Amino acid sequence: MLKKITVILIWISLLGYLLVSFSFVGDKRDAIILNDIKVKVKDSIDSGFVSNKDVEKIVKKQYPDWEGNSVYAINKEVLEDKINRVPYVKKSEIYSSLSGNLIVEIHQRNPIVRILQGRGYYIDEEGKKMPLSPKFTSRVLVVSGAVNEQLIKEELFDLVKFITNDEFWKSQITQIHVTRGKEYVLVPRVGAHKIELGSIENYQKKFEKLYALYTDGFTKTGWNRYKKINLKYENQVVCTKKN
What parts of the sequence cross the membrane (predicted)? Predict the structure, then answer.
């Protein structure tokens, strides 16, 4: 019985200590006065769609009197929602430090393909459209020709992901052209030839044939001997020589 009472008293003491500690921390946070805004664009080395100044402008426009106010004068959820509306922002996280800094962490969206249609636009790794930026151009795969949103959703996005997720093909293929008959022509980085992939059907097997040609056939015959490589036919590759 005495042992149980001792355990209960220990838990009561611990609970009281935690309540006092949280209250102390809460009071201390209430007293924190903001004196600076620190923006951290987590992937700024790879992309330059969003700059620190862009984010600072949003914060200062939303809260012009932020400086000298308590951290609780800033509604972090509202501000995050405002920043997340920027078309190049994937996610934002806002918190404050005990030294009085309002810290804004930004994760940019990652485009994997640029569609050359009208003014043009990007598609990110999640399949969402992104506008072009006047400040930064992402070096990604380019798609031209008879492209529409239905084609992108039904088959083109899968082909783009296949190419961009493979280190070999990502380095080799720079452009996809879509014909009016929904056939795909690939433009390589090396060599003056075009690659006629044909329809999307069995495209992975077609790339297997192309890989064998690149890693075996071209090492013997050279890269610049052909003007066209046709992968449309099953179990064969038809190469057309230059005149």
Answer: 7-25
CA dihedral 11, 12, 17, 22 (to 10 degrees): 100
**What end-to-end distance do the CA atoms of the chain give, in Å?**
101
Cα–Cα distance for residue pair 165/152, rounded to 1 Å: 17
User: Which tokens hold the place of 196?
Assistant: 């006629």
Q: pTM value?
A: 0.80
Convert the pLDDT of each residue in 186-230 to its tens digit: 999 887 789 999 999 999 999 999 998 888 876 666 667 778 999
Which DSSP state fits 146? Answer: S
Q: Which domains can be identified in the chain, with CATH numbers?
A: 36-108 (3.10.20.310), 111-241 (3.40.50.11690)
Tokens 């430090």 belong to: 97
Beta bridge partners of 121: 115, 131
User: What is the predicted pLDDT for the residue at 56?
Assistant: 94
